[in-house]
Structures are given as C-alpha cells and as structure tokens.
C-alpha cells in the first residue's frame, strides 16, 4: 500500500503538467480507428508462450540455469537453457533458451517487480536521447530518439546477448528468434528485437511479443519498429505503465497493441495504429490500477511469487 501511494504521488508530481494537458499541441497524433474484438483463442499462438517465458525471467539465475524454477519452468516443458547475462544480482537482466516446440531461440528480458516500478518513473526524468547510430547504422539521419534509461540498460547487455543468440542459432539450427519481456523488460526487449533483426541472417524470423510496455521512444522510433520488427504488445485494463512517459514529452507507442478489457481473459481488442485512443492511450493516470500491470495476461500473472524462493 505504501509503495502504491508513493507511486501515485510521484506520478502526479513528476507528470502532472503533461497529464493535465498543459502543453497542448505538442502531442503526437493518436490513432482513432475502431478496435476489433478478439477472444482468447485468437491470441494463444502469439502470446501464450511469450508470457510464460517472460514469467520465468522473474526467477533467480540459478533456478533458470538448470530450469528448476518451479511452475514457471515446468509450464514450458522441456526447454534448454543456453545463457543468461547481467549483473551479479539475483535476477538476470536476460536469459536465452531453446524452445524445441517450434525450434526457436527465445530471449526474455528481466521482469520488473511492482515495488521497483518507481525506477521507470526515475527514468522518465532522463527523457529522450538519440538512438546509438553506431549500433543501428541504418537509422542515421532519421531523428530517432529513445528513452535514455532503456537504452543504457540495453547497451549493458547487447553484445553478449547477440553472441549468445548467434551461438544458439548455429548450435540448434533454429530458424526463429522470439523476444519477450514485461514492463521495463518489455521496453528493452523492443530494442533487442530491432538489434537482432538487423544482425541475424535475413532468413531468420525475429518476432517480439511483450507485456505492459511503457513508451520507449519518439515518433521516428515507433515508425522504425513498425517497419522493421512489428511489435506485438498486450496491455491490461487500467495499467498506468503503458501511458508513461506521456506523449506530450514526445513519446509514441508503435502499432500492435492488444488490449485486455476485463479479468475474464476472453475479452480483448486489437487496436489499429499507434497509440489508439480507444485502448490504453484513452486511459487516465487518475483512474489507473497498478494491480493490472502484473496481469493476468492470458492467465499469466507476473512476479516472483511462483518462483521457488518466492517474493
Ligand atoms: C541447480 O543449480 C544449483 C546451483 O548450481 C544447485 O544448487 C541445484 O542443486 C541445482 N538443481 C538441480 C535440480 O540440479
Ligand atoms: C529435452 O530436450 C533435449 C534437447 O532438445 C533432448 O535431448 C532431451 O531428450 C529432451 N528430454 C525429454 C525428457 O524429452
Ligand atoms: C554504441 O554502440 C557501439 C556498438 O555498436 C558501442 O560500442 C558503444 O559503446 C555504444 N555507445 C553508447 C553510448 O552506448
Ligand atoms: C467485454 O468487455 C465489454 C466492454 O467492457 C463488455 O461490454 C462485454 O460485456 C464484455 N464481454 C465479455 C464476454 O466479457
Ligand atoms: C484493480 O484491479 C483488480 C483486478 O481487476 C481489482 O481486483 C481491484 O479491485 C482494482 N482496484 C481498484 C481500486 O479498482
């Protein structure tokens, strides 16, 4: 409760000017197209296993490395762990695994526990910076800017992660790479997917399915993702995270939002365009529900509770 109140207080103090529309006219355009209704069966194939892999990323490095992380691991069946990377912290920044069910290499980024969600807001203060064009040469001159905190996190692991994916592809003969993550991990996953897309052989299918995605960059970044990676992301009900940082600060979501309307897990909409006003973008921070951030997403709730060491 204390964390939640702090969260809301920070939200309103850090963001009240943009939320309340004190800088009208500076916002990017919101899409207005009518969303299409979807049921659970329409989403299983694109989001179910990504959600399960993203949930594993909350567990300790040791339990992931021998695939003994309890229900999150057993739900996925016989998956082969390949590599993890990050700090000396208990939770890896990412892990790489081989999924034999579709012969793919999976990259899952660290999940953010709810009490750490404040780090997202701290990062908001860092704002937009130029995308590293040394790493993304094809973007030179396009005016792409991304969230500086997300780019810093991405840069810390990008080289080791690419080496691990290349080795995984060559060792297993996989023809697909599936990238996933939740929250902060979702934002970093979009950068990872764009980087892998330009780095692996063009015959390799690189897909991205993420959950509770905050805005990660400007309009040019959203357009770049739309034309290269093709983001698929699920947002849940009144979760505040997908509506920060605000569009009034120059941030814009890519296309590809699937919005969950209620707890039933059978009532979703596919939202055309970028930042569709009928989906998360139409939510207000003043009526947000932080519980919605962790899920459920196709029945999966994120957090450490289901890991062997709990909490
Ligand atoms: C998993 O690895 C950890 C650390 O190496 C070890 O303590 C644990 O016994 C292992 N579990 C299994 C089932 O191998
Ligand atoms: C699990 O997968 C590995 C590699 O794909 C395979 O060698 C092993 O036989 C499988 N184990 C089971 C129990 O299916
Ligand atoms: C930009 O990317 C290059 C690799 O392409 C890397 O060596 C460099 O450290 C990155 N710069 C920053 C500021 O992260
Ligand atoms: C789905 O959500 C809409 C809007 O909240 C609601 O009107 C409808 O009854 C819901 N349908 C189901 C099957 O839950
Ligand atoms: C937030 O959402 C959860 C899950 O739907 C619900 O149980 C809870 O009552 C909601 N809280 C508020 C304040 O609406």
Radius of gyration: 18 Å
By helix and strand content, what is the structural category? alpha/beta
CATH level-4 homologous superfamily:
Alpha/Beta hydrolase fold, catalytic domain
On the 0-100 scale, what is the average pLDDT? 87
In order across it, which strands form the biggest sheet? 1-11-10-9-8-7-4-3-2
| Number of strand segments | 11
Give helix and strand order, one letter per element, not per position.
HEHHHEEEHEEHEHEHEEE
CATH architecture: 3-Layer(aba) Sandwich
- Distance linking N and C termini: 16 Å
CATH classification, class level = Alpha Beta
Helix content range: 25-40%
Which fold name is given in CATH as the topology? Answer: Rossmann fold
The total count of helices amounts to: 8
What's the structural domain tally? 1
Strand percentage lies at 15-25%
Bound molecules: 2-acetamido-2-deoxy-beta-D-glucopyranose
Shape: globular
Keywords: Disulfide bond, Signal
Protein name: Alpha/beta-hydrolase
Organism: Mycena alexandri
Region (Disordered): 272-292
Structure characterization notes:
It catalyses: a diacylglycerol + H2O = a monoacylglycerol + a fatty acid + H(+); a monoacylglycerol + H2O = glycerol + a fatty acid + H(+). Pfam families: Lipase_3. The protein is an alpha/beta fold. It is 32% helix and 18% strand. The protein has eight helices and eleven strands. It has helices at 2-19, 40-56, 61-65, 71-74, 118-124, 148-172, 184-199, 219-227, and strands spanning 36-38, 80-85, 94-99, 104-109, 128-130, 145-147, 176-182, 205-211, 231-236, 257-260, 268-271. A nine-stranded mixed β-sheet has the order 1-11-10-9-8-7-4-3-2, with helices on both faces. The longest helix is centred in the middle third of the chain and has 25 residues, at 148-172. The radius of gyration is 18 Å and the shape is globular. The chain starts with a helix and ends in a 40-residue tail after the last strand. The structure holds 2-acetamido-2-deoxy-beta-D-glucopyranose (NAG) (5 copies).
